[in-house]
Design brief:
The protein is mostly beta strands. The protein has a single domain (8-136), classed as OB fold (Dihydrolipoamide Acetyltransferase, E2P) (Beta Barrel). Helix content is 7%, strand content 50%. A five-stranded mixed beta barrel has the order 1-3-4-6-5. The radius of gyration is 17 Å and the shape is globular. The protein starts with 7 loop residues before the first strand and ends in a 15-residue tail after the last strand.
């Protein structure tokens, strides 16, 4: 039997503070962006820097933790899956591809990346076993 694999791993910097919202059914969801950078030599031999922006979404307790501790500029490891959803806006269908977080690791040392809180975040958080996202249709954005 053939199985598919949908797994994403990125290390990058948070582009904006996570936005924590609640679905209509009361499920926490956090959205934010992460920038990854790469450098390569262009055809002319000069070094070219390239930044790729990733939309990230976290659900339930993961959303609450990430929203509390991540700040713009924080370095983070994100592991999850790619998911594309569509929505209608002004009569046009739009598509948005996101990384849905399963695991993460805060990579900043204590106090960097805008985290000035008195307590340190947990070093890593695994996704809860319940990954039912049936409330996707009532996203507030």
């Amino acid at each position: 039997m053939a199985y598919g694999l949908n797994k994403v791993q990125i290390i990058g910097n948070v582009g904006r503070d996570p936005e924590l919202r609640m679905t209509q059914s009361g499920v926490p969801v956090a959205t934010f962006s992460v920038a990854t950078n790469e450098s390569y030599k262009g055809q002319d031999g000069n070094l070219v820097d390239r930044t790729e922006w990733h939309n990230v979404v976290a659900w339930r307790r993961l959303a609450e933790i990430l929203a509390e501790y991540l700040k713009k500029g924080s370095k983070v490891y994100i592991e999850g899956k790619l998911q594309t959803r569509n929505y209608e806006k002004e009569g046009q269908t739009h598509y948005r591809t996101e990384i849905v977080v399963d695991e993460f690791v805060f990579l900043d040392s204590r106090g960097s990346g805008g985290d000035s809180g008195p307590s340190a975040p947990p070093p890593q958080q695994d996704a809860p076993p319940d990954t039912d996202q049936s409330g996707d249709d009532d996203l507030p954005f």
